[in-house]
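Researcher: Sequence of Serpin family A member 5 follows. Predict its structure.
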Amino acid sequence: MQLCLLLCLLLLSPPGSSLHRPRSREGKKRVKEPPVLSTVAPASRDFAFDLYRALATAAPDQNVFFSPLSISTTLAMLALGARSHTKVQILEGLGLSPQEGSEEKLHNASHELLQELARPRRDIQLRLGNALFISPTVHLQDTFVNAVKTLYLADTFPTNFGDPAEAQKQINDYVAKQTEGKIVDLAKDLDSTEVMVMVNYIFFKAKWEASFDHKSTRKQDFHVTSETVVQVPMMRREDHYYYFLDRSLSCKVVGVPYQGNATAFFILPGEGRMGQLENGLNEKTLRKWLKMFAKRQLELYLPKFSIEGSYQLEKVLPKLGINDVFTSHADLTGITNHSSIQVSEMVHKAVVEVDESGTRAAAATETIFMFKSATMSSQRVMFNRPFMILIVENSTNVLFLGKVTHP
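Model: Prediction complete. Tokens:
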């Protein structure tokens, strides 16, 4: 018998995760005011940027794209069922001290965020949700199930894992419906030993406040490296955008608003300065940018692009101090009274598309538990070499974070 957690996230879209048995696999409009950023609503440390650096280090010179909000929500739900040092590591990994009251603040902040995202929006589509698919043959701790339902507004479904194919179809149909078909076949390789699958999804879809004209898109060079140049469809628009030149990090930052309360930030480092930007990026840096932003008339060149990322987080999160939950030292007795449960895998998948009309993105995180075993003449800003992207909503939440190395 095993416990499997499936976490799902989607931005245009984000998705993610699962509970499992031991396995051996290793017009020139007024630009809106810039938002005040937070890496993840409940956390206080630079979780999003620490995780970004860990992912980028593991795959240098590759595209990076993920949802900090999806992953932090998964970890917060895990914290509900974790005990002793396992819980402390998760909380500290999210940037919270283990002092009394910190976990309560985490869950309350997550609850408030879920309620906020549940409110209908006129201009953008954005929702975040959770679900538990539970085997009726295995008893989960009532306090855990009730807390996930109350704090994380999770749906619950009885699921017959004795028929793995049917259980897999039930989960995948649910995820596909919640993400409007952007995430399909999220649950894979389920077997009859699983007792629960937890799904977290986030869905986001938005149009630019001022769209790019398709007629202005032209094939142009994109310098992947100093030696490698590829042709990409380059969009162009002249308009007022928020802009800041950060000389200390040798980068230019352009804020492009969506309709509604979302903004995409495109960050272009100087040639050969991507490493400097990555090392210096944190919440303090973002707040400095927001304070110093000024409206500028820009001739903006931005490539149409589609990138995706897939990450084995059980190999990455230990770099942030979250170790025990993936080992025989895991204490997840708050989920079930079986003491021999650990997380064997946590997989996160994400995809984003940017074009003339707006942005579409999707992501998924799968976690598997097992038994132990300024106004002036237009300035040209051309994103024709590797750059970073942040997608922010409602002045608080970094939904997605990534690096475009090869569009």
